């Protein structure tokens, strides 16, 4: 294990429907660099991950409930995708507020694939350049963001990627960004 992120606490915000690979790959990369990771969700218990949007994958224990945590509890935030996951998250005022508070505090935030949907809902893409899964791009533009077709983009503390194929670049970038703060 490296120690790039020793002493750093990272929240991974996810709900039922999270794309499994977009949860486990960043969690592993951050843990291997020494970060302490909490899976934060809308409710206690377990969440159901998916492979794609139709094939159930594993379930994961929730460490903390978003209504009971705050931005001061963590140094950084990751929002994985899956179509259903961010749709569930953006419907919850506590989850939206959690994301908004991270950005307002200047703490690094990372979202992949459909994860930027909650960034749109939290009104934090305005004036930023981001990337995402193609189906979100109109929402991002309508929210005042600029969309680019790149595997990973970081602008003003927010790192985004397009899909699971981008995970190697995404993980490398978030380790670097989280270590810098």
Automatic annotation (TrEMBL):
GO molecular function per UniProt: peptidase activity
PROSITE patterns listed in its UniProt record: PEPTIDASE_C56_PFPI
The entry's keywords: Hydrolase, Protease
Coiled coil (residue ranges): none
Pfam families assigned: DJ-1_PfpI
Domain DJ-1/PfpI residues, every copy: 8-176
Gene Ontology process terms (BP): proteolysis
Family recorded in the similarity comment: Belongs to the peptidase C56 family.
UniProt cross-references to PANTHER family, sorted A to Z: DJ-1 PROTEIN (PTHR42733), PROTEINASE (PTHR42733:SF12)
Name the record gives this protein: Intracellular protease, PfpI family
């Amino acid at each position: 294990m490296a120690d790039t992120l020793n002493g750093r606490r990272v929240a991974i915000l996810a709900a039922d429907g999270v794309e499994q690979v977009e949860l486990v790959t960043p969690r592993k990369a951050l843990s291997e660099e020494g970060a302490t990771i909490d899976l934060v969700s809308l409710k206690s218990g377990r969440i159901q991950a998916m492979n794609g949007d139709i094939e159930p994958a594993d379930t994961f224990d929730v460490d903390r409930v978003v209504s009971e945590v705050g931005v001061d509890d963590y140094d950084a935030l990751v929002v994985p995708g899956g179509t259903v996951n961010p749709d569930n998250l953006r419907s919850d005022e506590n989850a939206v507020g959690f994301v908004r508070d991270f950005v307002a505090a200047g703490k690094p935030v990372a979202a992949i694939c459909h994860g930027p949907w909650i960034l749109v809902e939290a009104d934090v893409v305005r004036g930023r350049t981001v990337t995402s899964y193609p189906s979100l791009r109109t929402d991002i533009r309508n929210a005042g963001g600029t969309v680019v077709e790149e595997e990973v983009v970081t602008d003003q503390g927010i790192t985004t990627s397009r899909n699971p194929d981008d995970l190697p670049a995404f993980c490398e970038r978030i380790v670097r960004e989280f270590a810098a703060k």
